[in-house]
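Structure (tokenized):
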């Protein structure tokens, strides 16, 4: 059973070379959806698209922590991780400077790291059903 859904675009870099394999054609993945896959960690494939990934859906899994590599995804605008087993957000979330939407509802998050304010584009945070104290 494959849980991955991708939205892709093709970008052709070199147009003068006749053979497709030498054209420098690169696959750009902007959306990945791993919702309801029974995952315990963020799949490593996600990091292959860290330059182009804009939306990542990890809804309804059993993920307990977010790996540091995830925060290298500089183009990420939407991160959806509701209904998982997160107990905290790492301070490295501040490196997601283009993040606009964050859904961390239905987790065990007690507080937000102080430096989340470095996410200047962040306009929507869904954090319901968490024991947030501050």
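Design, position by position:
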């Amino acid at each position: 059973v494959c849980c991955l859904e991708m939205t892709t675009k093709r970008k052709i870099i070199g147009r003068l070379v006749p053979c497709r394999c030498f054209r420098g054609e690169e696959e750009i993945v902007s959306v990945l959806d791993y919702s309801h896959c029974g995952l315990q960690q963020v799949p490593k494939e996600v990091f292959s698209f860290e330059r182009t990934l804009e939306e990542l859906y990890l809804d309804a899994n059993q993920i307990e922590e977010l790996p540091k590599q995830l925060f290298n995804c500089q183009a990420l605008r939407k991160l959806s991780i509701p209904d998982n087993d997160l107990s905290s957000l790492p301070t490295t979330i501040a490196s997601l400077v283009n993040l606009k939407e964050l859904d961390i509802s239905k987790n065990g998050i007690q507080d937000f790291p102080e430096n989340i304010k470095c996410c200047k584009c962040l306009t929507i945070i869904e954090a319901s059903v968490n024991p947030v104290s501050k």
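Reviewer-requested clarification: Residues 39 and 61 are 5 Å apart (CA to CA). Residues 7-23 have pLDDT under 50 and may be disordered.
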